[in-house]
Amino acid sequence: MYFLLAAAFAGLIFLAGTSRLSRGNYGLVKGTPEIKSISGLAFGPDGILLVGDSKSATVFAIDTEDAVSNAQAPAIEIKNIDQKIAALLGTEAQNITIQDIAVNPVSKNVYCAVQSGDGTPVLFKISGDKIEAVSTKGVMFSSLTLNGAPSEEAKDKRGNSLRVSAISDIGFAEGKVLVSGLSGQEFASTFRSIPFPFTDKQDQATLEIYHAAHGKYETLSPIRTFTTAEISGKKYLVASYTCTPLVLFPLDELKPGSHVKGRTVAEMGSGNSPIDMVTMKKGGESFLMMSNSSRPVFKVKYKSIETFQGSLTTPVEESFATAGVDFVSLPVTNVIQLDKLDDTRMVLLQRRSNGSLDLWTSSERYL
C-alpha cells in the first residue's frame, strides 16, 4: 500500500499526482510522494526530511517547512507515547510500531515514523508535548531510486526478504545523502553516497569486515547503524553491525565501484543488534553513543578509538565476550530509538520497566 500521511488526526487519505514546480536549489517539485515504507529518517539542509524506503528502494527528500532556528530547545517528556499516537490513528498501541525518530537540527522538533497494523507508514511531528500528523499531500519533494537494489523476490538462506534491508540506515554529511544497506551484487553489503540535490549520480561501494564474534570475514551483512566522525585528522564512516562489531571505513576510500575492507576496532558483545548511534560532546571531548536491542546504551570515547591502532582479526572465542576499544554501558536499557538534540543532550525512546514507552531527553550527566 502506498504511503500517504494523514492531513489530520481523523485518518489517512490516499491521494496521488504531482505538479512540476521548482524550489530553490534543492530540485524539489510539488506533489505527493508515493512512500511505501519508512526504513529510516534523517535530516538534510534547511529542514529537508530524508526518508529511506526499502520497499520501493527509494530515498525521498521532503520539505517540512520547519526551518525556524531553535537554539534553546526545551527537554521533551512524553509518557506512553505509543498510546497517544495510536489514539490519534484511532487504534490501539499494540497495532503500531515506531520505526525511527529523527530530530530536526534546525527547529529541534522530533519526527517519528510509525507503521500501522496493516503496514501503512505514517509520519508524526513532536513539538514539546504536542504530537501532530504530518501530511505529504501537495508537498515539495524529490526522490531517487537506488541502483542495484535487491529484487522484491530475493531472499537469504533462511528465506528472509533481502529487499527489506535495501536501506538499513540513512544520514547526511557534507552535502551528500549517505545510505547503508544491501544490493543485489555478490558482495551485498553496500554503502551509497548520493549528492544532494539529487541527480543521476549515486556513488556505491561494497564493504567487507572481519567479525571477530563470528570468526570470519563477512560481505553479506548490512551496516545496521552509522555516523561520520573525524578521527586523528581523517574522516571516517563509523559503523556497527548485527552482533555489535564496531568498524571504521575511511570516507576517502569509499569510491564508486570500490570494495573496501573496514578496520574492526571493537567487539561489543554478540546476541545483540545496534539500533542508533550519535556523536556527543562535553568539555572538549567527543563521545560515540549507541543504543542496542539487547544491551544498555554504550558510550565510547573517541580518544579511545584514536589510540587503538590495531584491528581485530582473530576470533573472540567466548560467547558475549568483548574485545578492542574500551566502552562503558550506561544505566539506560531498552532504548528503542535515539537521536541527538544538541551536543550534550539526546532524545530517547525507551521502554520503561513498568511497560510504558516514553520519549524523553537525557541530561549531560550521561556524558
Structural summary, described in words:
There is one protein chain. The radius of gyration is 20 Å and the shape is globular. The longest helix has 8 residues, at 81-88. A hairpin with a 4-residue loop joins β8 (110-116) and β9 (121-127). The strands form six sheets. It has a six-stranded antiparallel beta sheet, with no helix packed on it. The protein has 367 residues and is mainly beta. The N and C termini lie far apart (42 Å). The protein is built from two helices and 29 strands.
Supply database-style keywords.
367 residues, 44% strand, six-stranded antiparallel beta sheet, single chain, 29 strands, six-stranded mixed beta sheet, 2 helices
- Whole-number mean pLDDT: 92
Which structural class should the secondary elements be placed in?
Answer: mainly beta
- Shape summary: globular
- Biggest β-sheet: count, sense, barrel? 6 strands, antiparallel
Strand ordering within the main sheet: 1-2-11-5-4-3
The rounded Rg comes to 20 Å
**Estimated share of beta-strand residues:** 35-45%
Given as residue ranges, the uncertain stretches (5+ residues, pLDDT < 50) are 1-23
Distance between the termini: 42 Å
Give the helix level as a range of percent: under 10%
Q: What is the tally of helical segments?
A: 2
Secondary structure tally: strands: 29
Explain the layout of strands and helices.
Elements: E1 18-19, E2 29-31, E3 40-43, E4 48-53, E5 58-63, E6 77-78, H1 81-88, E7 96-103, E8 110-116, E9 121-127, E10 130-133, E11 139-145, E12 169-173, E13 176-182, E14 189-195, E15 203-211, E16 216-218, E17 225-231, E18 234-240, E19 245-250, E20 259-261, E21 263-267, E22 274-282, E23 285-292, E24 298-301, H2 302-307, E25 323-324, E26 328-329, E27 335-342, E28 345-351, E29 357-361
Parallel strand pairs: 15-20
Antiparallel strand pairs: 1-2, 2-11, 3-4, 4-5, 5-11, 6-29, 7-8, 8-9, 9-10, 12-13, 13-14, 14-15, 15-16, 17-18, 18-19, 19-21, 21-25, 22-23, 23-24, 24-26, 27-28, 28-29
